[in-house]
Amino acid sequence: MTVSIGDRLRLTASQTYLKTADPMPMLRPPDLVSVGEIGEVVALHPLETVAVRFRRGAFLIPLSHLEPVAAED
Known about the structure:
It comes from Parasynechococcus marenigrum (strain WH8102). It holds the Pfam family CRR42-like. This is DUF3148 domain-containing protein. InterPro entries: CRR42-like. This protein has 73 residues and is mostly beta strands. It has a single domain (8-68), classed as Roll (SH3 type barrels), CATH 2.30.30. It is 0% helix and 44% strand. It has strands at 8-11, 18-20, 27-28, 38-45, 49-54, 57-62, 66-68. A hairpin with a 6-residue loop joins strand 2 and strand 3. The protein is globular. The mean pLDDT is 92.
């Protein structure tokens, strides 16, 4: 899957932890983002990882745990 900054993605899998997308990343509990929540890509990272801004913060998420959102959602 190819993504670019500004794309909307949906979280499809529960995470064991969340890693913040801050300059000094921190590990956060997984209940900050629920499965099915929609976020916006704010940065692209190596190894098939993107920074996605959800309603409770921006986190680094592997592309394998995300799916694109249709325009009508």
